[in-house]
Specification:
The protein is mainly alpha-helical. It has one domain. Helices cover 78% and strands 0% of the residues.
């Protein structure tokens, strides 16, 4: 006798992973490690702990990022900066990419299975603007949406699931497409080390950050990333056609 499709383990496993991740996130009190003030006040202890417990530190960070990406919690940027502070620009970016890719994949699989119907009913209308692009060339379009944040990260995850994108395509485009942004945020976090090492009360305002040369490159990179959607919309083929039709 076979199980009913609606209750098969394969359909509910992504949902179970989401629940387990959320429980672990709050059980480990990871939400309390998400402020720059905490990094500033405990930077020496945190650095020593990470140095003495490298594997545990990486595991905790990746688990936290998986939960953040899976539930689309609005703290990804701050956690990315913390990753750069704790692990450095390159290693921090690597752990960010791994956590974000796994977390978004869990949401992607959940949208394809147990949570598909309610999520489609709730967000289906917002996804229609992306359907044509996914159906034309799923790989290129999804990679573009990862590199160019035209839509919210979580919404792209759902759109990919609802338009039949394969898991392999989703994994590759997500992992590759988020590398630039991950490196920029990790670089900003890595720059905090020099700022904190200077002693006193560091100025974390934009003017204060721009006064230090070690922040120039990541800030400029972040600014350029922020401008990409504007440039894309200004010179998109759709706009060009509209201008020609006038």
């Amino acid at each position: 006798m076979t199980d009913k499709p609606g209750f098969s383990l394969g359909r509910i496993l992504p949902l179970l992973l989401l629940i387990a991740g959320l429980v672990a996130f709050f059980a480990l009190d990871l939400q309390h490690f998400l402020t720059l003030d905490l990094l500033k006040e405990n930077r020496v202890a945190l650095k020593h702990w990470v140095g003495d417990h490298q594997l545990q530190a990486v595991a905790l960070f990746v688990v936290a990022y998986i939960v953040i990406a899976a539930f689309s919690l609005p703290i990804a940027a701050l956690v990315s900066i913390a990753g750069g502070f704790l692990f450095g620009s390159v290693d921090g970016a690597i752990w960010i990419v791994i956590g974000a890719t796994i977390g978004s994949s869990i949401l992607f699989l959940a949208a394809k299975s147990a949570l598909g119907d309610p999520l489609r009913a709730r967000f289906g209308a917002r996804i229609k603007t992306m359907e044509a692009g996914f159906r034309a060339n799923a790989f290129s379009y999804l990679l573009l949406l990862r590199l160019v944040p035209l839509f919210p990260f979580w919404l792209v995850n759902l759109a990919a699931a609802f338009t039949g994108v394969g898991l392999g395509t989703f994994l590759i485009t997500t992992a590759v497409g988020i590398i630039p942004g991950a490196f920029v945020f990790a670089s900003i976090g890595n720059g905090l080390n020099a700022l904190f090492d200077a002693g006193g009360q560091p100025d974390l305002s934009l003017i204060g950050l721009l006064s230090r040369p070690d922040f120039y490159i990541p800030i400029i990179g972040f600014t350029l990333l922020s401008l990409i959607p504007i440039v894309y919309r200004a010179f998109s083929p759709r706009k060009a056609k509209a201008e020609t039709a006038r």
